[in-house]
Automatic annotation (TrEMBL):
Gene3D superfamilies recorded: Jelly Rolls
GO molecular function per UniProt: kinase activity
Protein name as it appears in the record: cAMP-binding domain of CRP or a regulatory subunit of cAMP-dependent protein kinases
Keywords of the record: Kinase, Transferase
Alphabetical list of InterPro entries matching this protein: cNMP-bd_dom, cNMP-bd_dom_sf, RmlC-like_jellyroll
Pfam families the UniProt entry points to: cNMP_binding
Domain Cyclic nucleotide-binding, first and last residues per copy: 31-114
CDD domains in the record: CAP_ED
Amino acid sequence: MINDLLLTHINKNVKFSTRAQEEFCSFFQPKTIPKKEFLLQQGQVCKFEGFVIEGCFRIFSMDTKGNENTLYFAAKDWWLMDIDSFMNHKPSDLNIQALEDSKILMISEEDKTTLYDTVPIAEKFFRIMFQKSIVAWQRRLVQNHSLTAKERYHHFKKNYPEIVAKLTDRQTANYLGITHEFLSKIKKQA
């Protein structure tokens, strides 16, 4: 069942009754996204929150010179969205692109609001998820300011091997904020 991963994820964070689990899952719609397809492009308003069932996505922005800046990757059992665009109904600064054939469960803002009314514990679940995402962002900022590029690479590789295995060296280097050539030097030293 496609919701099994979502249910496992929910129960790691908040204990839902069986009935509440079923209701919770009923608000999510499955979507298949082919490799290289965009789920969201800069300038569009993000109208969904997504939970990755399989595959991998790159969440990135592009500056006026055409340079890409990868914020994060979302693989199986991860959430993805542009929270600023989603919450404030403004055009997104981000792109969300499938790096491989992928499947997600999506919920709209309207359905999420209804979900909070229908399954009140869902609000606690999403609050916990939001807090965890803030912690992850804070850790990444601290690491970007305190670790060398080599240390950041080894940390990324150690903590997210399933994601690193899906990426090209260029995508990894972009995420780490280094050049492809510098990443090659780091890998040769290892």
